[in-house]
């Protein structure tokens, strides 16, 4: 079943409603469970949600024209919105539903970020100032350099950064890395920045020092070896990971006593479509070093490592359940 096929408009409307509710709730975890259950009911649901998540991360200007959370749901069911909003919704539906050329045109349009990766892809970059960057799966980055500053914008996903010396300038320009919850400033440093599906971001400093600043102006100096959670209003410390979170830069997923549900969620980032885990097996534990270059084969291996069965409905809809 092709991944770029046409979707029923009713399914797309429901996916948008889920996203709008997610934007307006204080209990995202519970609502995400409901969304996961909806995605698992039919492959069309999973595909519509995946397309919407891609658009959320990479096409914010279109989505920002939709009504706010207090207006959005009525707008989806009534024609009383202004023309500008209705046009935006029509464009969004066209991209998601898959009218002839719509979705593929979006996926290959020049409206994308300067650099992006799809599911399972990684990309290495060396910028003019000597900064080295590696983008992880499903990530996008804009580079905005000028004579006064070096500005990187992580639209979504994950990136590893080793800041360059900027030797072409007598006084090195400050390096500023923006994300949806604020920005980070660094001199000579190596660090990892990840956007967690728009809920929060995490920063892990491998070497040097990074200053994290929220959108509201709160600042935190983050030292080598430290890991921090970055939100709209707060920066909070996280436990030091038992395994360096940079294993993906070498094509590996390294886990130590990880819950199966968390493992499957992590693996889902590296493949297209819906990847789910039944609650009955969610608390099983897994340790090991896994290669990320063949995530589908890795899914199948779970049945040999744990008392589970991997159920495939289509090549892009898979669920881990208890072994019968």
Low-pLDDT runs of 5+ residues are 58-91, 97-111
User: What is the CATH domain class of the largest domain?
Assistant: Mainly Beta
Outline type: globular
How many structurally independent domains? 3
Q: Order of strands across the biggest sheet?
A: 1-4-5-7-8-11-12
Please tell me the overall pLDDT: 81
CATH topology title of the largest domain: Jelly Rolls
- Given helix and strand content, the structural type is alpha+beta
Give the number of DSSP strands.
Answer: 19
Beta fraction of the residues?
Answer: 25-35%
Radius of gyration based on Cα positions: 21 Å
Taking the sheet with the most strands, its summary is: 7 strands, mixed
Q: Judging by the overall fold, what is the CATH architecture of the largest domain?
A: Sandwich
H/E element string? HHHHHHHEEEEEEEEEEEEEEEHEEHEE
Portion of residues within helices: 25-40%
């Amino acid at each position: 079943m092709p991944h770029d096929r046409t979707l029923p408009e009713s399914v797309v409307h429901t996916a948008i409603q889920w996203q709008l509710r997610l934007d307006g709730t204080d209990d995202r975890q519970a609502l995400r469970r409901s969304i996961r259950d909806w995605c698992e009911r039919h492959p069309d649901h999973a595909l519509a949600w995946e397309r919407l998540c891609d658009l959320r991360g990479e096409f914010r200007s279109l989505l920002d024209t939709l009504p706010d959370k207090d207006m959005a749901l009525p707008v989806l069911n009534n024609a009383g919105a202004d023309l500008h909003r209705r046009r935006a919704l029509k464009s969004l539906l066209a991209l998601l539903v898959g009218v002839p050329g719509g979705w593929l045109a979006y996926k290959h349009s020049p409206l994308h970020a300067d650099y992006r990766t799809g599911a399972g892809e990684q990309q290495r970059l060396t910028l003019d100032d000597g900064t080295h960057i590696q983008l992880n799966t499903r990530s996008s980055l804009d580079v905005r350099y000028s004579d006064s500053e070096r500005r990187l914008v992580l639209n979504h996903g994950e990136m590893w950064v080793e800041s360059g010396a900027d030797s072409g300038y007598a006084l090195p320009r400050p390096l500023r890395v923006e994300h949806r919850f604020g920005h980070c400033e660094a001199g000579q440093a190596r660090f990892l920045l990840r956007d967690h599906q728009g809920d929060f971001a995490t920063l892990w400093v491998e070497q040097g020092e990074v200053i994290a600043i929220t959108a509201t102006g709160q600042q935190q100096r983050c030292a080598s070896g430290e890991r921090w959670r970055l939100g709209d209003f707060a920066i909070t410390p996280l436990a030091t990971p038992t395994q360096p979170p940079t294993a993906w830069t070498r094509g590996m997923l390294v886990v130590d006593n990880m819950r199966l549900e968390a493992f499957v969620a992590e693996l889902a980032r590296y493949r297209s479509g819906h990847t789910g885990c039944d609650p009955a097996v969610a608390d099983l534990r897994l340790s090991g070093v896994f290669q990320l270059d063949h995530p589908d084969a890795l899914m199948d291996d779970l049945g040999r490592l744990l008392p589970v069965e991997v159920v495939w409905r289509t090549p892009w809809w898979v669920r881990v359940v208890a072994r019968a």
